[in-house]
Every structure is written in structure tokens, then in C-alpha cells.
UniProtKB/TrEMBL annotation:
Ranges for domain Nitrogenase molybdenum-iron protein beta chain N-terminal: 6-54
The reaction(s) this protein catalyses: N2 + 8 reduced [2Fe-2S]-[ferredoxin] + 16 ATP + 16 H2O = H2 + 8 oxidized [2Fe-2S]-[ferredoxin] + 2 NH4(+) + 16 ADP + 16 phosphate + 6 H(+)
Molecular-function GO term, any one: nitrogenase activity
The entry's keywords: ATP-binding, Iron, Iron-sulfur, Metal-binding, Nitrogen fixation, Nucleotide-binding, Oxidoreductase
Transmembrane segments: none
Family per record: Belongs to the NifD/NifK/NifE/NifN family.
Name by which UniProt lists this protein: Nitrogenase molybdenum-iron protein beta chain
Cofactor names: [8Fe-7S] cluster
Lineage: Bacteria, Bacillati, Bacillota, Bacilli, Bacillales
Originating species: Paenibacillus haidiansis
């Protein structure tokens, strides 16, 4: 069998003569700046004067470390069995959410749109929504449709509640089909706000509708687990493993790990896994709810605490020994089960691994960007191993997050140099990393350009990760997740050491 024609990758393809000639002709036609002018502008963009101007801007955002609300709503919807995410608004937005999630998880993402265009914007989108619901039932046969909105529907003020009721009265969708909805305007909030709004809507809808099954004894001895806007499917697996070690029953309130990590068996299904709809009302009678995110599910946690009347414990992403200890204590507290010996053993092994690596990490200065819960987890981890967070950029954090982050930083001498930048973007981060250098950056793929300009490596943790594969399959929470985070960071540092080593310093053993 022949191997076929030679395939050039992106880096070498455009070095071929024909592309180089094309590039020259384009350059001559466009009469661009000279190489010297480009160099001068680049040097200026790295100056202190430019940094001041960059931080003075207030009407422009460049490369924010966040996505828009409905993207989170799509993820929340995909956490439930046979649920179709339905975006009321424009098709282009829906294509963006699908491609964004697909590029991170490397999985197809089912989501439909009411496909509003100019006439919908002028006359309202009710017909689009009604026909869209009817078509969705006919084509995709979901058990639930979770409706959220894009900016267009929000700007014209479409009334989802009335439109869905009209759709039911017209017979476009049966009364037995749950259609929870959330308003997710993207001119405020971010993907985590949208996730929160949709999750709360689904939980409240399913737990209050008529004819729900009564909870059994088995339900009241279970624990509800929430992972929130979770970019790591591996974190669900890790929680399953931890709960199996405890031997306690549990229900995930939103489990999108199946939809974002389904097997290739030769046949495609729109739906894979997810929390069973019938389990939600039973979850209202559970022992309590434990959430591994705090800032991403604020309203949902308030709802559960107030309406389900059960104990609620939430914590930022538990990365590191202390944070995982807190996680296990919370499970123990809510279930009454002791922390299993196997996990204590595992803890010891991870402490050992941290000790092995800490001399390479001690004193390393770090810049990090991401969602509030993840940043708190990463700050805690850095302080545990003696790394020094310096620049912390949180585009979608609030004052409460800032205060919690500052308290955490103040608890350790390694946090002394840190500044938490709320509402800033990754272009601000570029100025920060160039003006006040650090050793490495931690964040999503979007941070790679700023890290490159600053001449430092990027450890990819967070969302989205487009340019590395399978990272989301490995957990970052719990002792095992802590070991994974440690491995990622320390090996990046060791690679950097090798890359920069003089001839006498390329040591075999590190
Ligand atoms: S910000 Fe608004 S218009 Fe843009 S993709 Fe998100 S929902 Fe659509």
C-alpha cells in the first residue's frame, strides 16, 4: 500500500516557494509598514509608557479570559440525560458555542438555534421559537429542551415564558416535555453566569413540576455533587473514584462528562450520559449538596439551600493537599462516612511527590489567568509548593472573589508579591508579564500569545485548551489531580531548564 503524497504541516507548507512568492506579491500590493516600523511598534508595546496606556483603556476589551453566557448554558444543558440545548437567537452565536466546546473537548456538540434573522429582530422571535421547538422534537427527539438566549433575543426583549406557553398551546411541543429556560444576555456576565442560570432553571423546573416521583429511603442517604462549569471530564471520573472509596451513594447535579467524552463505536448518538431527569426531584431530599465550584454556581447554591432546605458546602476547585483534605472532610461531614484509608495512603504518596519536586518549583514566579474557582485552586497549590503567584488576572471575577484570593495570598509569605486584577484581559496580562517578569504562566490556550511575547512557557490549565490534546481527560482535582498538576508544572520547569542549559548543565538527572 502506498503512503500517498507527502503531507506538509502548517509550519513547513508556507515555506514552499509558491507561498513565499504569493506572500511577497501580497506584501507589495498592500504596501504595509516597513520591517523597521513593525519592530519599533512592537518595542513600544513593551514599554512602561504603553503599559500605562493599556491599563488606562476602559472602552475596549482585548482577548478577555472569558466566554459569553449562553456557552455556559449549553454546557449546563448537556449535563442532563437526552437534553437538547436550544439557543433562542442568532445561528452564528450557536455555531460559536458548538465550535468552542468542540475544539476543547474534541467532540461533536449538539445544540440548535431558533435562527433569528433581521425580521425576527424587528417583529420578535416568537415564530422562530415555536417552529424551532416543533422541529427539534421531530428531528432530535429529546426528553428535555433547555432554552437559553443570545444577545439578539435579549436586546429586543423576547418573553421566553410566554413564547414557550404559546408553543404548548399551539401543540408544537407537548406539556409532558420539560422546557426550562434561562435568560443569558452576554453583555453582562460570562460563561459561568450562563451555566449557573441554566442549571438553576433546570433544577427548579424538574424538582417542582407536577407528578414527580416520591423520594425513597435510598435517595435521602445520597449526596448531591456539583462540579459546575467543568472543563475537565477527568474530574467527574476522579469524583466517582473518591465516592467509590467512601462507599456512599451520590447524584451529580449536572454531569456533562458523557456528552463530552463519548466512545467511537461506529454510530453517533446526539445524547450520551448525563444526570437522569427523574433523579433531580429525588436530589431535593438528599443528605446535602457539595459543590466543587463556588463562584460559578452562586445562584444555584442559593436555590438549593433555600428551596431544598439541605446543607450546602461549596469550595473553589480543590487542587493541592489542603484543598483536597477539605474536600474529603466535607464528604465525610455530609455523609457521616469516615475518610477511607486508601485515600489517606494516596495523600501520603502525593505529599512525597510534592517533596520530590519542590526544589525546582520553590520561588518560581507565576502569572495566572482564568475563572475565579480555578484561580483560587491554583493559588492554593502554588503557595503549598513555594511558588509565588505574581500576576493574577480574572476577567469574570467579583469583589468577593478578589477578597477571598487576597486573604489566601496573605496567608503565606509566597503570596506577598501578588496582585489580583479583576475585570482585566489577557492584553493587560501581556503588559504585566513584560513589565514585571515571571518564570511561567498558567492559563488557557488564549494566553499563549502573551506568554510567547514575554518569553516564558505556558502551562495549559483551564478553559479553553484548543492547542493541546486530551488534557481535559486527566483530573486536576483531588490528590490524583494534584499530582497531575504538579507533573505538568514541574516538567515544564525542567524542560525550560534543559532548553536554557549551558553545555555543562544539561544534566541527566534532575
Ligand atoms: S456575545 Fe452575544 S452576540 Fe456574541 S456570540 Fe455571545 S451571545 Fe452571540
Amino acid at each position: 500500500m502506498s503512503k500517498g503524497p507527502e503531507i506538509y504541516d502548517f509550519n513547513t507548507l508556507f515555506l514552499q516557494d509558491e507561498y513565499q512568492e504569493l506572500k511577497e506579491r501580497k506584501r507589495a500590493f498592500e504596501a504595509p509598514c516597513t520591517a523597521a516600523e513593525v519592530e519599533e511598534a512592537e518595542a513600544y508595546s513593551k514599554s512602561e509608557e504603553y503599559k500605562e496606556k493599556n491599563f488606562a483603556r476602559n472602552s475596549l476589551v482585548v482577548n478577555p479570559a472569558k466566554a459569553c453566557q449562553p456557552l455556559g448554558a449549553v454546557m449546563a444543558a448537556l449535563g442532563f440525560e437526552k437534553t437538547l440545548p436550544f439557543l433562542h437567537g442568532s445561528q452564528g452565536c450557536t455555531a460559536y458555542f458548538r465550535s468552542h466546546l468542540s475544539r476543547h473537548f474534541k467532540e461533536p456538540v449538539p445544540a440548535v438555534s431558533s435562527s433569528m434573522t433581521e425580521d425576527g429582530a424587528v417583529f420578535g422571535g416568537m415564530r422562530n421559537l415555536i417552529e424551532g421547538l416543533e422541529n427539534s422534537m421531530a428531528l432530535y427527539k429529546p426528553e428535555m429542551i433547555a432554552v437559553s438566549t443570545t444577545c439578539m433575543a435579549e436586546v429586543i426583549g423576547d418573553d421566553l415564558n410566554a413564547f414557550i406557553e404559546n408553543a404548548r398551546q399551539e401543540g408544537a411541543i407537548g406539556r409532558e416535555v420539560p422546557v426550562p429556560y434561562a435568560n443569558t444576555p452576554s453583555f453582562v456576565g460570562s460563561h459561568i453566569t450562563g451555566y449557573d442560570a441554566m442549571l438553576k432553571s433546570i433544577l427548579s423546573y424538574l424538582s417542582t413540576r407536577e407528578g414527580i416521583p416520591a423520594a425513597t429511603e435510598g435517595d435521602v442517604t445520597k449526596l448531591n455533587l456539583m462540579l459546575g462549569f467543568e472543563p475537565y471530564t477527568g474530574n467527574f471520573g476522579e469524583l466517582r473514584r473518591i465516592m467509590a472509596a467512601f462507599g456512599g451513594g451520590y447524584t451529580f447535579l449536572g454531569d456533562h462528562s458523557g456528552n463530552f467524552d463519548s466512545p467511537a463505536k461506529g454510530e453517533y448518538s446526539y445524547y450520551y450520559g448525563g444526570t437522569k431527569l427523574a433523579d433531580v426531584p429525588k436530589a431535593a431530599s438528599a443528605l446535602g449538596t457539595l459543590s466543587l465550584q463556588k463562584y460559578a454556581v452562586k445562584k444555584t447554591l442559593d436555590y438549593i439551600g433555600e428551596s431544598w432546605g439541605q446543607p450546602v458546602i461549596s469550595m473553589p476547585t480543590p487542587i493541592g493537599i489542603k484543598a483536597t483534605d477539605r474536600l474529603l472532610q466535607a464528604i465525610s461531614e455530609l455523609t457521616g462516612l469516615p475518610v477511607p484509608e486508601a485515600l489517606t495512603e494516596e495523600r501520603g504518596k502525593v505529599v512525597d511527590a510534592l517533596t520530590d519536586s519542590h526544589n525546582y518549583l520553590h520561588g518560581k514566579r507565576v502569572a495566572m489567568a482564568g475563572d475565579p474557582d480555578l484561580l483560587l485552586g491554583l493559588i492554593g497549590f502554588c503557595l503549598e509548593v513555594g511558588m509565588e503567584p505574581v500576576h493574577i488576572v480574572c476577567t469574570n471575577g467579583d469583589k468577593e472573589f478578589q477578597e477571598e484570593a487576597e486573604r489566601l495570598l496573605a496567608s503565606s509569605p509566597y503570596g506577598e508579591e501578588a496582585t489580583v486584577h479583576l475585570g482585566r484581559d489577557l492584553w493587560h496580562m501581556r503588559s504585566l508579564m513584560i513589565g514585571e517578569p515571571v518564570d511561567l504562566a498558567i492559563g488557557s490556550s488564549h494566553l499563549k500569545y502573551a506568554a510567547k511575547d514575554a518569553g516564558i512557557p505556558l502551562v495549559r490549565i483551564g478553559f479553553p485548551i484548543f492547542d493541546r490534546h486530551h488534557m481535559h481527560r486527566y483530573p486536576i482535582v483531588g490528590y490524583q489531580g494534584t499530582l497531575n498538576v504538579l507533573t505538568l508544572i514541574v516538567n515544564t520547569v525542567l524542560q525550560q531548564l534543559d532548553d536554557q542549559a549551558p553545555e555543562y548543565g544539561l544534566d541527566l538527572v534532575r
